[in-house]
Amino acid sequence: MLAFEPRYRTADGLRAFCECPAPTRSESPGHRYGGEREGVRLAALTDTPLASRFCSWAGLSGRRYIFSVYPWSECPAFCRAVLLAAARDDAGRRHALLVFDTGAFPEPALLRAKRDLSAYGPRLEFHLHLLASSGAERESVLADLAVHSA
């Protein structure tokens, strides 16, 4: 469910909404936000036609970030967005592969990611976070969502 978080503010001082952590997860924060994290559906959209179009990813800090989900072949080239490339495993769980700022010229970055990750085939998804409104906010999201190889 989406929740109002008065402690989170955007760069222009506005308060933000965020996805609350799923109540069914019982592991400790160290394990939960460690090296292997999964994208999860938004509880507020369960059983709606939009459920497959959005998911959230937990940062190392525990904060969750909401992303729009696209098949890799249909991802729009948004400037100055956070793009997270993910692959689904055989059980349907999403696993982060890489995360980057699309910058002012997103087309070359998207093409490079598509080329480099083409081995994942139809399991590959591109997730866009469009809510970070400044370069500093995007850098903060990138640092929090850092994808580390095992």
How would you describe this protein?
The structure is a single chain. The longest helix is centred in the last third of the chain and has 11 residues. The relative contact order is 0.19. The N terminus is likely disordered. This protein has one domain. It has three helices and eight strands; from the N terminus they run E-E-H-E-E-E-E-E-H-E-H. The strands form two sheets. A six-stranded antiparallel barrel has the order 3-4-5-8-6-7. A two-stranded antiparallel ribbon has the order 1-2. The protein is globular and about 35 Å long. By secondary structure, the protein is an alpha+beta fold.
Question: In short, what is this structure?
Answer:
The protein is an alpha+beta fold and 150 residues long. Helices cover 17% and strands 34% of the residues.
What is the distance, rounded to the nearest whole angstrom, between the alpha carbons of the first and last residues? Answer: 31 Å
Number of domains: 1
Return the structural class.
alpha+beta
Give average pLDDT, whole number.
Answer: 81
Q: What gyration radius follows from the Cα positions, in whole Å?
A: 15 Å
Enumerate the spans where pLDDT stays under 50 for 5 or more consecutive residues.
Answer: 1-8, 19-35
For this structure, the quaternary state is: single chain
Q: How many helices in DSSP terms?
A: 3
Shape: globular
- How big a fraction of the residues is strand? 25-35%
Largest sheet: 6 strands, antiparallel, barrel
Q: Helicity level, as a percent range?
A: 10-25%
Strand order, sheet with most strands: 3-4-5-8-6-7
User: Quick one: how many beta strands?
Assistant: 8
SSE succession: EEHEEEEEHEH
